[in-house]
Amino acid sequence: MAKQKIAVVGAGLIGLSTAVYISESISKCSVTVISDKFTPNTTSDVAAGMLIPHTYQGIPIHQQKQWFRETFDYLFEINNSSEASDAGINLVSGWQIFKTIPDEVLPFWSDVVLGFRSMTEEELKKFPQHRFGQAFTTLKCDCPSYLLWLEKRLKGNGSQVYARRIEDLWELHSKYDIVVNCSGIGSRELMGDLEIYPVRGQVLKVDAPWVNHFIRDGDSLTYIYPGIHNVTLGGTRQKDNWSLSPDPRSSKDIFDRCCALEPSLQRAQDIKVRVGLRPSRLAVRLQKEILVHDGKKLTVVHNYGHGSGGFSVHRGTAKEAARLVGECIAALEGSSLKAKL
Ligand SMILES: Cc1cc2nc3c(=O)[nH]c(=O)nc-3n(C[C@H](O)[C@H](O)[C@H](O)COP(=O)(O)OP(=O)(O)OC[C@H]3O[C@@H](n4cnc5c(N)ncnc54)[C@H](O)[C@@H]3O)c2cc1C
Ligand SMILES: O=C([O-])CC(=O)C(=O)O
């Protein structure tokens, strides 16, 4: 049987990781990634890349936990291999601190990260405004390095990568058997999906190599995330704001909030401002869809809407998308066999 031709739309974290999973797990297909933007110009490049899950209201917790565990285990293995530095993965320990006791003293992901415990009174003394805290070790991606690593993996296994904007998925009908839609916030226009909306995030990437412990305020607005090449200082969450222009007042506010938690950041150098639009949705859309037009059919698998937590769950959602692609291939092969009989 001829190989099925798969087009993956989108070369952010979700498109690349899905394309890698499909190309490495399904032998009877060829994979082509088509995207209008690539690293370093995607939302995924702006992210802090921390593995701390955000809850999706529309998805059962056991499912989210499984996605997180699969992602954590995958990156942990890379972190313990000779690939770690190329892939931009590092382990990082730190604190999540709260001004009031949170509803979830033990979050669902507490037994996936390493060494999760409550902070001691002694540790909390560093944060006089905060009453409670959680200490743990997790993983962090240097996002542009990780995206480049995924892209190299794809090219290395014979997959194709093309720069092109897709106005309508039907453009791909004549050349591909299955389209995997990983266009993130682009799905609002491409699919007309009004359930997806932007949550604007502005961060600072600074040089402060002495900072090697993360601090995240439980209000999820302020964070200090040390990575391999820089420290990410966050952030903002502005729903339905489409502006990609840096806002100087937000930069000052972010810097002041982070310095209040870690005063040594006053000495940070080489401050760069980055803005990204989180592709937010009540639930990630992971679904098969058969589009029908003029009697023709186009098989689509959607994987988009990861909001604030794409890095934390991307490997798990890529695996699920690949499983759906496998089902589509079986159905297409079944129907072409029937047509021959
Ligand atoms: C400031 C900030 C900090 C973050 N920090 C974290 C964090 O610490 N941990 C975490 O887990 N998550 C974090 N996130 C969330 C994470 O960045 C996203 O969940 C993730 O990047 C989404 O990836 P994506 O591939 O769906 O989207 P994108 O990176 O936006 O990729 C979408 C791709 O689709 C392409 N595309 C779109 N429309 C079309 C079209 N019509 N034709 C062709 N191509 C198209 C785009 O060019 C792009 O390549 C953060 C986000 C922001 C903004
Ligand atoms: O909230 C965090 O810790 C980082 C993040 O995912 C975001 O800003 O979207």
Automatic annotation (TrEMBL):
EC number(s) given by UniProt: 1.4.3.1
Cofactor(s) for this UniProt protein: FAD
Catalytic reaction annotation: D-aspartate + O2 + H2O = oxaloacetate + H2O2 + NH4(+); D-glutamate + O2 + H2O = 2-oxoglutarate + H2O2 + NH4(+)
Residues that bind FAD: T43, S44
Residue ranges of every copy of the FAD dependent oxidoreductase domain listed in the record: 5-324
Localization of this protein: Cytoplasm, Cytosol; Peroxisome matrix
Cellular component aspect of the GO annotation: cytosol; peroxisomal matrix
Alphabetized InterPro entries for the sequence: D-amino_acid_oxidase_CS, DAO, FAD-dep_OxRdtase
Primary location: cytoplasm
Residues that coordinate or bind D-dopa: Y223, R278
Keywords, alphabetical: Cytoplasm, FAD, Flavoprotein, Oxidoreductase, Peroxisome
Example GO molecular function: D-aspartate oxidase activity
BP GO terms, sorted: D-amino acid catabolic process; L-aspartate catabolic process
Reported function: Selectively catalyzes the oxidative deamination of acidic amino acids. Suppresses the level of D-aspartate in the brain, an amino acid that can act as an agonist for glutamate receptors. Protects the organism from the toxicity of D-amino acids. May also function in the intestine.
Family: Belongs to the DAMOX/DASOX family.
Protein name per Swiss-Prot or TrEMBL: D-aspartate oxidase
